[in-house]
Amino acid sequence: MQTAAKKIVNLDSIRMAIASKMESGDFESWIAPQKFDIVDNDLVLVAHNQFSADYIRGVYTNILTDVAAASGLGLRIMVRGAARPAPSNDNRIQTFAPAARAAAVAPSSFDAFVVSDENMFVVSAAKKIAMGAAAFSPLFIYGPAGCGKSMLASCIAGTSRTIMMSGGQFVAEFARSLREHTIFAFKDFCRNCDTFILDDVQVLGGKRATCDEFIQLVMDLRAAGKNIVITADAAPANLTGFDRRAMSLMASGLVADMVAPTAAVRRTMLIRGGVDASVADYITTRVAANGHLVVGVIKKIAAYVELMGARVDTNVAARLLADTLTRAKTPAAMVRSMCEKMGVSYDAVCGTSRARAIVRARQIMMAAMKNATKLSLAEIGTACGGRDHATVLYAIAQTEKLKATDLMIAAEIDQMIDLCR
User: Fold this and answer.
1) Which domains can be identified in the chain, with CATH numbers?
2) Is residue 65 pLDDT above 60, yes or no?
3) Does this model's pTM top 0.70?
4) Which letter, b or e, does each residue of 390-405 get, where b requires 16 or more Cβ atoms within 10 Å of its Cβ?
5) Which of 50, 105, 273, 399 has its CA 20 to 30 Å from the CA of residue 187?
6) Cα dist. 170→25, 56, 110, 160, 215 in Å?
7) CA-CA distance, 178 to 45, in Å (whole number)?
8) What's the angle, vertex CA 49, arms to CA 46 and CA 53, rounded to 5?
């Protein structure tokens, strides 16, 4: 009976029929690696381990049954090496453990995270995930480098049964599991948690097989009621190297952005790091809004105190951190930067030209410097070619009128203000 069935039914045609009814990524991840056979008029799928057998049985039984029935066969799903369905996960065939490596971010607590008003929403969402009471998953956190995404993710990881991987680590472990033929044990490992965190998902962009595996992981964890946290340097719609299905899935939970550390956050970080308040005040406005740089400054000051046995004051800090701190912009430097940005001549702006475009640019620069700095009207006038107090005051008044009625002028002024800060 078995021999006759094999002559009539082609297993390759059965595989093709199954593939035609499934997403290509799902088929390649779950069905293609399995072994098929025909025994006693049954189509037998032999899975690598119990997890795979249970998953296929729970998700794809209808498809497999329909294809088998079309060939006049029944369906059986079994585990390799087991005469009957095993009662628990069978990892005696495959074992997997992540490669030993230093954690990219040390486990932290929410108490150690300095929260600004702008980041209150995303931190509240992270705490909800950590409590295991969130109705949204995945939580997608994005923001520029140094804004605290990885540290916030590590705060979540420290409060529950969590697996946290960087994007690079996930790529490396997935490739290793394929090379060592432990892919199904790798799948088991990633799913055996309450919360899965992937830091820097953008690393997966363009790596189709790895991306497909991660997307399947997200779908499986969410179906099981588990939490997923994803961090990236851009919103889901702005990621490159991902298909629409992947981007829409990552955006299907809660998407929250993080802003770079504000001056108040940077000052708090410095003081918590042991920097004197007066030195922290000096550094805060001169260090870029990047948490990595702030941490580097703290470490450098601590190393100096330890190695030199001397206190760090503002003079020492200025010399010690000369390669990190930004120099204060002079009024003349501000005017030159704005001229370059607006595409006008510095000599014309500071000269006697009364051309309409030059006058307009000059007035915008005066208004921007007034809003962005603490310079007096006389100092602003001097920087713009020796204009007097009354001229600067008139220029600012005229610009404010235009700003109230012209959105393009308002946007241009905002750009110039940012350039002066």
Assistant:
1) 2-79 (3.30.300.180), 122-257 (3.40.50.300), 263-320 (no CATH), 331-420 (1.10.1750.10)
2) yes
3) no
4) ebbbebbebbeebbee
5) 105
6) 18, 23, 25, 20, 12
7) 21
8) 60
